[in-house]
Design brief:
Blueprint: E1 2-6, E2 12-16, H1 23-34, E3 41-45, E4 50-51, E5 67-73
Parallel strand pairs: 1-5
Antiparallel strand pairs: 1-2, 3-4, 3-5
Length: 78
């Protein structure tokens, strides 16, 4: 399936993933493609409106084909 990550500048990055992939894997794919360290950002899905934990699987968050996930920059010290 394909999911899209949108950054704070409204740039979209689309990835081919499996619903059993975890968020950490998706963040590593984003790091490889964009160069932003995986620990430098968080991923949020506004439906269901949760911060996505690294160990959670895409299916745990009901992320489906063509879902939009939003990247937020992690603040220093957080």
């Amino acid at each position: 399936m394909h999911v899209t990550i949108r950054d704070v500048n409204n740039n979209d990055y689309t990835f081919e993933v499996k619903d059993t992939d975890n968020i950490k894997t998706l963040k590593a794919m984003l790091e490889f493609k964009v160069g932003i360290p995986a620990d430098g950002h968080r991923l949020v899905c506004y439906i269901p409106g949760k911060m996505l934990a690294d160990e959670g699987k895409l299916c745990d968050y009901k992320i489906m084909h063509k879902s939009m996930i939003y990247m937020v920059t992690r603040l220093l010290g957080c």
